[in-house]
Amino acid sequence: MKMEMLFSGIGGQGVMALGESICAAAIKAGYEVTFVPFYGSEKRGGRTMCNIVIADQMESPIVAKPSIMLIMDERSLEDYQDTIAKDGTLIINTNLVGIEPSCECAKIVKLPFYDMAEQVGTVKSANMVAMGAVAQLLPMIKYEDLAGEVEAYFSKKPKLIPANLEALRIGYETEF
Amino acid sequence: MEKRVFMEGNEAMAEAAIRAGCKLFFGYPITPATEVLEYYARAMAERPEEEIMVVQAETELAAFSMVAGAAASGNRAMTATSGPGFSLGQESMSFMSAAEIPAVVVDSMRPGPGDGEILPAQGDYFQAVKGGGHGDYNTLVLAPYSIQEMCDLIQEAFVLAEKYCNPVVMLVDSTLSKMREAVALPGYTEVPDPDSKPNALRGCGKEESHHIITSGDGAVQWGEYNDMLQEKFKKMRENEVRYESYEVEDADIVMVAYGSMARVCQSAMRMAREKGIKAGMIRPISLWPFPKEAIAAVGDKKILVCELSAGQMVEDVQLSVKDRDNVYFHGKLGGATPTADDILSKIEEVIGA
Amino acid sequence: MKTVYEKPAVFKEAVTNYCAGCGHGIVSKLIAELIDEMDLQEKGIMVWPVGCSVLSDRYFKMDTFVAMHGRAPATATGIKRARPDKLVMVYQGDGDLVSEGMAEIMHAAIRGEKLSIVFINNAIFGMTGGQMAATTLIGQTASTAPLGRKTETSGYPMRMAETLATMPGVSYSARCTINTPARIRECKKMIKKIYEMQMSDQHGLCFLEILSPCPTGWNTTPVNALDWIDEKMVETYPLGLFKDEESE
User: Fold this and answer.
1) Distance (Å) from the C-alpha of residue B234 to the closest C-alpha of chain A?
2) ipTM of the predicted assembly exceeds 0.95
3) pTM over 0.95
């Protein structure tokens, strides 16, 4: 089994935190996991993108054809959509992506992650909603482990945990 | 060995080095090696009982000299830098080899020339392996391809540096430094007493004094000194070749790659086999000494060398085999890494050729 | 017959290679006497520069590191951080400290490294044959300033002792010379002071600049060189104590 994923957004959206949490949960499930971050050179508002590979054995950490691609902003769509696997799923944050995807893939999911996050009170939780959505495509990862990662991530600010767990659940239960 | 943790390459390697008794770290911030310095600085602050000592030097020039001073005093010491910093350190590499100082130097490669990009590359091969400093010297060059290997080899690096009284270079790249994967962190190792090292500066008292000096005393003396060093390098050549072989026996095409490029080639190899192509790989782990015999033993199979460069290791591969026309090259410059699909296409092209 | 003076015990059996009238020989002897008197063979580790005094490593039965050109303060930092209980004794000339090693000395001072640095200022590059140094006087001739140093092209003499004295990481900074017996005795006291201050572990960088004769580099005789220090050097490089934490 080899699952390649690419998540991309702008600095500050929490794309890396999202990726790391998924990796941690995948490791708990017993897989070989690699995570490679890519940054733009701007200190603020620059590119943040990560390559994640979940597999049974050690593989190339550089993703060739991601079967899951999460796009949080428009420039990311322009930059990466052509690399998606033909049988892959593209998930787009419609709040920041105004253009139509032009790539060929099995499924395109459009969700307004910022609006959905407003339900728990803050757009900062948009990455947690997105993580929940992505988790639907990762049956090998246990939801409880992902929730555990959210708790661990906010362990120094426990007041934020409930809202973010709720955001995760919203993303996980939304139908597409 | 502990259970595995999901850690960044730089940080895991730093932890492994601390556990190998390397308490002294001197460095200058440079992407993609900065996290090693920062990890050490945090460890110094948070784990006072381990007596870790970190100096953020004013320049890489100074950092290399600090490492030389500390290592000359019998203590394990290291620095971690990238191409531009490693270039600054070349006089030091020559000096430390001449002075028989057992320092460990990590170079996390990024694309050059110049300041280039903060992405992976393998363009420092010539500099590290052939020696970018002046004069006749060699250093062991180790090239891990996973975070686990980075941890295991950094611990060995100190032992090897002390065994041969010579600097050891660990050559990684931005991908290995910045990526995260599961690693079983190695434990704390035995560390020799600093005073037990042969030429360590410790305050000689009435005993024979110890001198670190690299200027000679006429052609005869300096010639003999060089002969002594060359003997040492010869032993390193004989004893320290490391590599790993993957499905070479029945292969029609053998890839040669190291570091993160070897990870990509490994995936490509599996994909090729699934398509019925008999692909294998030799992965040098020591770039100096280069595993020339292992590569020569490949016989008349086609060889595909893959590097994140314009072609540096490929020259050593060509030197290792008789039929250089059977050596193909696939390289990438600028910081992008070929995907396993790219390599697979190249394998198919070479096989068809 | 009574022995009134002996060669210091720490000296090896060797004849120094210095020119007649060179200041290195005098200062080396003072340091050697102090090593004997203060029993520093086990306590001390010496760091030498690249320059004429690179040869000094041959004369001392001490653990020594002859550093790369300019890097002595960085190398010494490595040694002192690794072995903080040792007395790290640094010795540099003006090519080494002021030119090649300007960043290293400044940052050792910035960090307040616990080092004792003896700086030999002879206003010239000796070992490589008499080129202009950053410490060369205005109008002084050198192989790379045949008509004398001009400020328009080569700036002004660098006063290290005063500059370092302004920095909080520096605990002691002074300038002396060795062209009379009285001054030689005074110089020895000051070298002893910078060693004692390091050993007390209470202070940062301790720095002593010594104006030193270089008859070969100045193209003059040994005796005239001693006079030249008073006639020409002291005006640009005044003798004195610029900072002493212990007397504040």
Assistant:
1) 35
2) no
3) no
